[in-house]
Amino acid sequence: MIITIDDVEQKRKIKFSTFKKIAPFFKEHQLSISLSILGVLVSTGLGALLPLIFRELVDKAIPAKNNDLIFQIALIYLCILFLSVAVEFIQQLIVGFMGIEIVSNIKKKMLSHIFTLGIPFFDKYNTGKLISRIESDCEQLFMLFSSIGLQVLWAVLNILISFVVMFSINPKFAWLTTSIIPVFTLGSLLIFKKMRPMFRKERDIYAEITGFLSEYIKGIPTLRGLCNINWGIEKFKKINEQRWKYSAKIHAIRSAIWFFLMLTPNLIIAYILYESVGWVKQEAITIGTVWLFIQYISNSIQPLVMISEQIGEIQRSFGAADKIFDILDTPSEEGKLAKYETLSAFCKNIEFQNVSFHYKEGESVLKNISFEIKKGETIALVGPTGCGKTTLLSLLTRFYEPIEGRILIDGKDIKHLKKENLRSFMGLVLQDIYLFPGNALDNIRVFREDIEPARVIQSARDVMAYDFISKMPNQFYSDLAEDGGNLSFGERQLLSFARALCFSPELLILDEATSSIDPYTEMLIQKSLEQLRKNRTCIMVAHRLSTIAKADKIIVLKDGVIKEMGTHEELLNAKGVYSGFYYKQLGEQHNLSFKPEGELC
């Protein structure tokens, strides 16, 4: 979905709760913070001395034509300037390293937390948005953690010192200078209140672009093959233009605000220069004092400008923080129970009792599903696309939870088991086979160092994957291309079988792929499936007739309910939904003397 300029902007205020969430990240850096604050105090105090020293140079040393005094004052000025810059440099190093470490810790915490989240979370966030949160939004926080707070402290101290000195020298000019404060305060409030929703939306558009690039770059070969590469280009142009227009709008508003903000102090300086001409002639004020006021006005403007600018950065940072904590505040997949049961072994059966489920309210996917799987049985789930086959597997693995009903393993409700405990008995072979960057060995054992290579090799032998792996340049240590691009579909499927077998699961959950493959690979896959199912309980979404016919029980789903259930022979004799599907697949419907109740595919 493309975010449009006319979308209603949600206005969110910076809450104290956000500060409370950010504060813990500073706990381990109290020494760095203390040293940085001390550095700000020292550098600000030294900087405030410079206009006073310069006034002495202009009013005393230069008129007296005393070269020694000019040299002494200039040397003192340079020493204080150098010391101030040196202290500021050290302070920036300290807070910079602190910011880098904090942002790195947030990234690690985010990624660790994301690994604990359930499948519904990933339905909400695509890959591009998650990359944007972990990288872009965390980097946006770097300024907040590394310098913004100290810069604001420096700015406040500079303003206070400048006005104290100005009031002590010339209250009239000092009062005139205070008119800068409400102007900058108003500008800051405009930026703070009106532009934060805009900054947040700007980051949403950026995440949209990141998501598009992440998802569609992989599809370039397909678009090229279909002669539709211009579709991707045009879609990106629309999203990119969307961001350009919105960023230009933000830039125009900020520029307009800054034009009026910077006009005020320049008018005040012009008025001071105009008024001081007569006073200098009357010797009521010195040129050095006039220059001192201009310097302190500049010293006041720079911090005010910085505060106003940092408000914009704070807005961006808190917009990023909101998004980061939206993820960190998402409950983990496991949830919390007062007491968990433990499944030490799978001994008897699995029962689905009156299970119902929907992804969206009012759109039922499964309705009152009940059946039993005995240990050692192979169950085939068949039915048309969207009837709930894969959803049943997702409920058994607890990727999702039933809306109604319950699922029992050996009489224990699986929602009372820890998911890690439950899944330790399961081997998953999903239709979408994901292969990690790395070699074949690590892909089969999923980077588990406790699984010996010999076990991996034996698993590959058992599922007929050894032959093609051994022909690769470095055999099991051969690197795989992205998403297994240097393997055929059948080879990727055999690799996924080896992965499942390598973990010796008691319960095999298989979502069989529908892709067409050559007869030889089909034969290999069938032999591999037989090896996988041997001495195991297996529940699978099946599409191949050869796979379905060998199942101990076939469950026919349609429109979210069980239409038929039985063995292959029983369902053929019943001449119902399954029979019609089976003979249609064989191309033998013309031999039937009955009209099937319905079709599955």
Please render the helix and strand layout as text.
Elements: H1 16-22, H2 30-61, H3 67-114, H4 119-124, H5 127-169, H6 171-177, H7 180-194, H8 196-216, H9 220-225, H10 229-281, H11 287-328, E1 349-360, E2 363-374, E3 378-382, H12 389-396, E4 404-409, E5 412-413, H13 419-423, E6 426-429, E7 438-439, H14 440-445, H15 453-462, H16 466-470, E8 479-480, H17 489-502, E9 507-511, H18 519-533, E10 537-541, H19 545-549, E11 553-558, E12 561-566, H20 568-574, H21 577-586
Parallel strand pairs: 3-10, 3-11, 6-9, 9-10
Antiparallel strand pairs: 1-2, 1-4, 4-5, 7-8, 11-12
Helix pairs in contact: 2-3, 2-5, 2-11, 3-5, 5-6, 5-8, 5-11, 7-10, 7-11, 8-10, 8-11, 10-11, 15-17, 17-18, 20-21
List the keywords.
601 residues, alpha/beta, ABC transporter transmembrane region fold, Rossmann fold, four-stranded antiparallel beta sheet, 21 helices, elongated, disordered N terminus, disordered C terminus
Structural commentary:
The chain is of the alpha/beta class. The protein has two domains: 22-328, ABC transporter transmembrane region fold (Up-down Bundle), CATH 1.20.1560; 349-425 and 508-515 and 539-601, Rossmann fold (3-Layer(aba) Sandwich), CATH 3.40.50.300. It has helices at residues 16-22, 30-61, 67-114, 119-124, 127-169, 171-177, 180-194, 196-216, 220-225, 229-281, 287-328, 389-396, 419-423, 440-445, 453-462, 466-470, 489-502, 519-533, 545-549, 568-574, 577-586; strands at residues 349-360, 363-374, 378-382, 404-409, 412-413, 426-429, 438-439, 479-480, 507-511, 537-541, 553-558, 561-566. The protein is elongated, with a radius of gyration of 36 Å.
